[in-house]
């Protein structure tokens, strides 16, 4: 379980691709791997991965074919930077919202606006996931718990303050970039329950 509060930026050192499996060597800030153990869970761009090996401040992870298919991890290469969060522990402050680290889909950054002192990112998601996206609702983008701003058809935006841009990879975001999306589990449960009762949300209009 994760909180959606990104703990820092890590760097992909090496990617080894084999049929149906990719192994990632990821370098973390040295103080962020204290006490880590083999088998621990770490969210990489919002995707829960298991530590398989440690090499100093670098951790190794395996990603299976299904993970590579559903997320953006398959496109990572050496030198890329990623958001990371180590698994939450009982008693930790929940500053964002509870996440499982199981990515539902990916989205594309379609527009970046830069008003004074903040940045607004617009995303386009596959139509089937728009039923769970509401203004002021929660969503996780590359592992960061964010509040949805506006929703227009299959597009939504988020507003990022300077601290979020500093602490995450969003400061280097660009149009056309794909990101991992985890829908808020409570919102998904409510929407699906209402749909089973016949109160389905209409399809989005552009």
From TrEMBL:
Chemical reaction(s) catalysed: 2 6,7-dimethyl-8-(1-D-ribityl)lumazine + H(+) = 5-amino-6-(D-ribitylamino)uracil + riboflavin
InterPro entries according to UniProt: ATP_synth_asu-like_sf, Lumazine-bd, Lumazine-bd_dom, Riboflavin_synthase-like_b-brl
Record carries keyword Repeat: yes
Domain spans labelled Lumazine-binding: 1-97, 98-194
Lumazine-binding repeat intervals: 1-97, 98-194
Pathways per UniProt: Cofactor biosynthesis; riboflavin biosynthesis; riboflavin from 2-hydroxy-3-oxobutyl phosphate and 5-amino-6-(D-ribitylamino)uracil: step 2/2
Gene Ontology biological process terms from the UniProt entry: riboflavin biosynthetic process
Alphabetized CDD domains for the sequence: Riboflavin_synthase_like
Keyword Nucleus: no
Keywords for the protein's UniProt record, in alphabetical order: Repeat, Riboflavin biosynthesis, Transferase
Transmembrane portions of the chain: none
PROSITE patterns in the cross-refs: LUMAZINE_BIND
Molecular function in Gene Ontology: riboflavin synthase activity
The EC number(s) this enzyme carries: 2.5.1.9
Domain of life, source organism: Bacteria
Function field: Catalyzes the dismutation of two molecules of 6,7-dimethyl-8-ribityllumazine, resulting in the formation of riboflavin and 5-amino-6-(D-ribitylamino)uracil.
Protein name stated in the entry: Riboflavin synthase
Organism for this UniProt entry: Marinobacter subterrani
């Amino acid at each position: 379980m994760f909180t959606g509060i990104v703990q820092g930026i890590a760097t992909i050192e090496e990617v080894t691709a084999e049929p149906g499996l990719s192994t990632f060597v990821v370098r973390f800030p040295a103080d962020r791997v204290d006490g880590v153990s083999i088998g621990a869970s770490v969210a990489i761009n919002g995707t829960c991965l298991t530590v398989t090996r440690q090499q100093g401040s670098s951790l190794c992870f395996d990603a299976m074919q299904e993970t590579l298919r559903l997320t953006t991890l398959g496109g990572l290469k050496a030198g890329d930077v990623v958001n990371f969060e180590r698994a939450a522990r009982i008693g930790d402050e929940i500053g964002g919202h509870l996440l499982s680290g199981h990515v539902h889909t990916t989205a594309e950054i379609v527009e970046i606006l830069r008003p004074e002192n903040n940045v607004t990112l617009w995303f386009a998601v596959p139509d089937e996931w728009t039923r769970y996206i509401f203004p002021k609702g929660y969503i996780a983008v590359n592992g960061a718990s964010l509040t949805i701003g506006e929703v227009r058809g299959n597009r939504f935006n988020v507003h990022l303050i300077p601290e979020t841009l500093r602490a995450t990879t969003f400061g280097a975001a660009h149009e056309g970039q794909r990101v991992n999306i985890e829908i808020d589990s409570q919102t998904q449960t409510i929407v699906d329950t209402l749909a089973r009762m016949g109160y389905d949300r209409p399809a989005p209009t552009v």
